[in-house]
Amino acid sequence: MRYLFSGGIGATVAFFFLYTLTEWLGFYYLVSTILAFVLGVIVSFILQKFLTFQNYSRDNMRRQVLIYITIAIFNTSLNTLLVYLFVEYLGLHYLVAQFFSSGLIAFESFFIYQIFIFKSNTPTV
Fold it and tell me: Which of the residues 40, 70, 78, 86 has an alpha carbon 20 to 30 A from that of 100?
């Protein structure tokens, strides 16, 4: 539930900026998609680290940020590609396309975050 909450907040931030940049500021929807996704990733990292995975250690934070950013770059590329495909080939509205793309990326990301970034170093009994 914490993952869904944190991801939901990150997604809300991304949707807000996607809509604002595209509709109010006149950015091209793919440029807005990239910028909004990056802002959502920043919010998401903070919430995932401290709330979802309750990883309060600052010892590995540089490593975590580096891996998280690497994954975010991959996810930004994947997100942009999916939004483009959904809009151009399936005829979806860009916000609907972003919704579906975000869901697919959230599913994939949970396992990557859990296994590679925020894994607990404490042995389980």
Answer: 70
